[in-house]
Every structure is written in structure tokens, then in C-alpha cells.
Amino acid sequence: MGTSQSREGQELSDTESEYQSEEEEEEEIHYDAVERQETPQATSSSKKKLDEIDSRLKSLKLKYPSNSQTTLNPVKLYLHIGGDSPNAKWILSDKLTSFKFIKSNGPDDSGSDHDEKGGDGNSFWVLKVGSKVKARVSTEMQLKMFGDQRRVDFVNNGVWALKFFSDEEYRAFVSLFQDCLFENVHGLNASEENKLKIYSKDFIGWLKPEIADDSMWEDAVEEKEEEPVRVNQDLLEEFEEASNGGVQSLSLGALDNSFLVNDLGVQVFRNYNKGIHGKGICVKFDSNRSGGSSLEQSTPKKAMLMRAETNMMLCQWDMRDRRGIVQNIFSGGDSPVLNWNQGHQFSRGTNFQCFASTGDGSIVVGSLDGKIRLYSKTSMRQAKTAFPGLGSPITHVDVTYDGKWVLGTTDTYLILICTLFTDKDGKTKTGFGGRMGNKIPAPRLLKLTPLDSHLAGANNKFHGGHFSWVTENGKQERHLVVTVGKFSVIWDFQRVKNSAHDCYRNQHGLKSCYCYKIVLKDESIVESRFMHENYAVSDSPEAPLVVATPMKVSSISLSGKRSRG
């Protein structure tokens, strides 16, 4: 449990190559280990070592191949090997190669030259680096920029890094990549006209973050950061126990009990300030219910606590059906059933996928087209605010209790949106209660580093991004968590909001935060949720995190000390 060490974020250097033969195909570059959870931060000892390296570099006259000045789009290509093991390192895969963006119609298509840009709907842009890299331009590449190093890292059947010879070449690559990504996502040439067509003038800050009104973000004052601590001092596993069967979902309660829905039934847990602990009670499903239908066909996947957590609803429903019920799990007359009361039926084009509600009942809805809509508590007929999104489908959405922040989950990143704006009378409101106009802050993206994305696995996607759990006005959620493969990934909310945070330096485009902690399990995680704030203890910054895998449930404390009692 916890994160391991990585050399991914350390600066690439050719220092050691000065002492190796130029005929060698690969040269190894070693770096001091740093923790992935604190990539942008550096301890005093690591800073001293970096200063020593920098001093050594200045004393050397580094030599580059003479033909680097004549090669079109010249770059150095590095490959990360060793994963997260102690022997992990970067190796120089190609001392001098070149990159280009080409149009491709499929994996075996050689493609046309990068100058022939245009959206024809049938082809897509591919990044080709020498003979070793050919990757479709997409968010799945998890491209990470290091502007101060003239470097980008990305994933493509491994973790690669490109090192550019000049700032101009680096900036040209970033601009080309972003244009190709826009076209692959939206199917339109990346012209100013088409960009305005997608984002509209009200959301120009999403397209050009450097001109966005970030005053609402800047109001978030980060608490003083302490020296980074080791993972085993920061994340502590309090409880772990086996479930009674394959876990389908987790339903945490704010009062005394929480519940796991598994293949056999509903398992009951008791809430403590160290996490949840099984009570030895399991309500099993009857395999002969519903007229002899099979257990597999009728096993519920989700549970919803209701009526002040005195009842649990297990059923499937379709709000378009006026009867409400699509499948009734229990035949008893007292079982809670969702019946149609009122609402608005949209005729077409919404692609609604998920929703969440604020403390006052306002609704945020995420869509397959990437849009996120805010509805007031009084009407669902028309959204007060509709964010354009970035093209990736929103698979899950969450919102803070006060409605000031919205968190959307996509397959490869989280998008954090500030809903605050100042109206014409100078009053601060949220986008749930009024139209935000053209002073809309640019969102922040929460991503994995390319190495962690690669370690998580190509087929593992982000799912179920949540804020920590607060249900009282005036209190602020403190963390965000998302699940990907065997990882539960935790961000500090206050740090993400801070515009001066180290993660955001030397970036181009929307600010992306890579500063997180990872809880690693030995099997794919079903769900990760923070317990209610009632269960936070005095020496912990947060209530325990509950992590459910198909066969186990664990409770993780963010405290550096074991809580008592």
C-alpha cells in the first residue's frame, strides 16, 4: 500500500555521455530517487544534489551532433525502463532523431506529411518519432510538459521523453501537438474560427488560459506546506478485511453504518473514526425470487441510502417510464420504489451520462460529449450554465456541498471547474443560480504522470472521481480521490486551487496538477470514497478513505499517527 519511488520527473542530462563511446547504441543516465507523490517538490538534500549537477554542467562544454542543425525537427529520444523499481532509470534511446505529425487512416497507414492539415472526418493525426514511436495524438498519451527543460514525456507502449535543442523548437512542438489534438477530438481544423465555434467567446479562457479570469482561483490561499514525508508516515492502513463475495459497489453512511453490495447480498459495516469494520451481518439475496429468475440476472449493482439512512433502495429504474420501475428486486409491498413525480423530458441531443446534487438541491449533469451543465434547484428545463468540456466523455460528476466547485471524471483525467462569478451588481454567485457571462475561470486538470499512467495499465481508466464528504455550510472539502486500475489517487484540494503551486510552473495551456498520493492495492479497485467528516479525528487532516476491491475492503488514514480510541 502506498507509492513507490520514481526517477521520471528528474531532469534529463547528457553529462555521463561525455565519458562513453559515441558508437554505443544506448547510454544510461542515473538519477536520485524521488517520490512520485511529491514530484514538483524537492527536499533540501535533493536540491543540493541538483545544484551540484547544475554546477557540473556549467563546467562542461556539451557536444551535440554536428548534423543537429540540418535535421528537420531534431530531438533526442529517451526511454524510461525499470518501472517503479529501485533500478528504474532513463536511457538515451536515440541521440539524434526527428519528429513529425502525419495524417493516418489506420494503424498500418504510413500517413501524409504534417503540413497537410485539415479535418476530413476519416483520418487522424499521429506523432511519429524516428522509427521507434508512432502514437495517435490523444489524451491517452498523457503528455506532460517540462518547459524549463525543453522536454515532454508521454506514454506509447512505454514511457518516452523528447528533449529539444532550443526553446523555439520546444514551443513549436507544443503548439503543433495542441492543434492536432483539437482536430482529433473535434474533427475540425484548428483555426481560430473553429476554436471559437467549439468554445464560444464566453469560454475563450478555456482555449487561452493565459487570458482567463483566474481571480476566483487566486482567492484560494494555500496553507503552509511542510517538508514532504515518506508514504508510510502519511498513509496508514487501519483496517482490511475480506468481503463475502465479489464487491459491486460501496455505500457509505454518515451515521452508524456503511454497506457493501456484493454478489451474495448486502454486507453491513460499522463506522469508526479509523474506518469501517464488519459487523458480521449480511443480508443475502434470494436466488429464487422474481419467479425463478437467475441470481446473475437480478443481482443489483448499486445501493442508495434514503430516509435518513433508515432504508436502502435496491432497484433499477428508468425516469422516462412513468411507472418508474424497470426491475423490482423485492416483491414485498413495503420496499421503497421510485415513482415518477415530475421532470422534463429532453427530446434529443443531451447525451446525459451522470449527475450530482449540491447541498441545496441544485443539479450538475455530465454528458458523453464532454459538456457539464448546471441546473438550479427550481427547474431542469434549461441549464443556468453549460460548460463546453474538452471533448472527452464525462463518466462521473461530483460537486461540493456549497456548489462552488465541480469535478468531472473522464477516462484519462479529472477536470475541476470553479462555478463562482461576479454579477453586474458586484455580488459573488455560483453558476447554479445565474448565468456566468464571459468571466469564466479556466478549469484545472488533474492527471497522472506518464509513468504512473503506464503502470496503471493501458486498459485501466479513471472512474468515480469524488470530493471528500462535507454536509455543512461553511466547511470546505479537503481532498479529491479517483480510482484507476489498482490505484486510488488522492489530491490535496487546497493545493490544486493554489495558482502559485509548483506544478503549474513552465506549463502551456490549461494548468495540470501532478502532485498526488497513491494507494496501491493488489487487485483492481471497485470504488474509493472518503467517509463523512464526522469521522475525522484531531490529528488527521481528513476522515478515513475506504477502498473496496472485489474481495476486500480497506480503511486508510491520512494521519501521520495512529488515532486513538
**Quaternary organisation:** single chain
**Could you list the spans in which at least 5 consecutive residues all have pLDDT below 50?**
2-6, 15-43, 114-120, 222-233, 289-297, 560-565
Instruction: Report the average pLDDT across residues.
Output: 78
Distance between the termini: 24 Å
Structural class: alpha+beta
Find the count of extended strands (DSSP E, 2+ residues). 37
Percent helix, as a range, is: 10-25%
Main sheet overview: 8 strands, antiparallel
CA gyration radius, whole angstroms? 25 Å
The share of residues in extended strands comes to: 25-35%
Mass-distribution shape: globular
Given the structure, what is the number of helices? 10
Compact summary:
With 565 residues, the chain is of the alpha+beta class.
List the helices and strands and how they pair.
Elements: E1 5-6, E2 27-29, E3 34-35, H1 44-59, E4 74-81, E5 89-104, E6 124-129, E7 133-136, E8 144-146, E9 151-155, E10 159-164, H2 167-186, H3 192-199, H4 204-207, H5 215-218, H6 231-234, E11 236-242, E12 247-251, E13 257-262, E14 265-272, E15 275-284, H7 289-292, H8 295-298, E16 304-306, E17 311-313, E18 315-317, E19 325-328, E20 352-357, E21 363-367, E22 372-375, E23 385-387, E24 396-399, E25 405-409, E26 414-418, E27 420-422, E28 428-430, E29 444-446, H9 450-456, E30 463-467, E31 479-484, E32 487-492, H10 493-497, E33 512-513, E34 517-520, E35 527-530, E36 545-548, E37 552-557
Parallel strand pairs: 29-33
Antiparallel strand pairs: 1-3, 2-5, 4-5, 4-10, 5-6, 6-7, 8-9, 9-10, 11-37, 12-13, 13-14, 14-15, 16-17, 18-19, 20-21, 21-22, 22-23, 24-25, 25-26, 26-29, 27-28, 30-31, 31-32, 32-34, 35-36, 36-37
Protein name: Vacuolar import/degradation Vid27 C-terminal domain-containing protein
Organism: Salix suchowensis
InterPro entries: CYPRO4_DUF7135 (IPR055559), Quino_amine_DH_bsu (IPR011044), Vid27 (IPR040458), VID27_C (IPR013863), WD40/YVTN_repeat-like_dom_sf (IPR015943)
